[in-house]
Amino acid sequence: MPASVEIVKVALKAYGNGDCEIALALADPLIRWDERASRPDGDLVWKHDAVQRAMRRYLDNWQEYYFDLEDVAEVTPGKVVGICREYGIDADGVTVDRRFGGLWVIEGGKIVSWSTYLSPREAVRAAKELGHSGRFAPAEIAAATEGAEQSKRSSQKQRAAKARAKVQREKTRS
User: Fold this and answer.
1) What is the pLDDT of residue 160?
2) Is the separation of the CB atoms in 5 and 73 below 8 Å?
3) 7-34 per-position pLDDT tens digit
4) Which domain holds residue 129?
5) Do 41 and 119 share a domain, yes or no?
6) How far apart are CA 3 and CA 104, in angstroms?
7) What phi-psi label fits residue 7: left (phi over 0), alpha (psi between -120 and 50 degrees) or beta?
8) Going by DSSP bridges, is the β-strand pair 27-34/44-46 parallel, antiparallel, or unpaired?
9) Fewer CB within a 10 Å sphere, N or C end of the chain?
């Protein structure tokens, strides 16, 4: 088994147990975390502290959470793809059971990128198309982080406007 696959397996076992700190001990300090392809409210963040907050925020939104890595393989050197399953009861009491694809990029024995996709097929395609090493320069991180924050603020404003409109409609009906 390639060392990159073993690193991913250990990190995911820790993550699935809620041990974000242990998972991130296997990551590069400038790790990239990207859930946007698998969840509409997914985060794109860089660096240990921001990634740990994103992990914790996600895991804390479950009443019960279980995670299984069903299959994992190195698609190209340093690019590991897995079939993941998470299930349990979310914060709203809804039973959830979903499978998704994960892509981890390993460089120098550390995870430099951790991304999720709607399907394993999408994760494999992304691994094969990944033109760069997976590591980003600090300027790229700053630019992308600002873009992601602007997008998140825009989405929050849109949700707030929809909520206000709904309240207004309910007032009108009364």
Assistant:
1) 63
2) yes
3) 999 999 999 999 999 999 999 999 999 9
4) 3-135
5) yes
6) 13
7) alpha
8) antiparallel
9) C
Q: Which of 4, 13, 19, 49 is nearest to 31 (CA)?
A: 49
Q: DSSP states of the chain as a string?
A: --HHHHHHHHHHHHHHTT-HHHHHHTEEEEEEEE-TTT-TT--EEESHHHHHHHHHHHHTTEEEEEEEEEEEEEEETTEEEEEEEEEEEETTS-EEEEEEEEEEEEETTEEEEEEEESSHHHHHHHHHH--S-S---HHHHHHHHHHHHHHHHHHHHHHHHHHHHHHHHHHHH-
pTM > 0.85: no
Q: Are residues 81 and 146 in the same domain?
A: no
Share of the chain above pLDDT 90, in %: 66
Q: What is the pLDDT of residues 118-158, one digit of tens each?
A: 999 999 898 888 865 555 555 554 555 565 556 555 656 66
Tokens 């859930």, residue located: 35
Number of domains in the chain: 2
Q: What is the pLDDT of residues 81-118, one digit of tens each?
A: 999 999 999 999 999 999 999 999 999 999 999 999 99
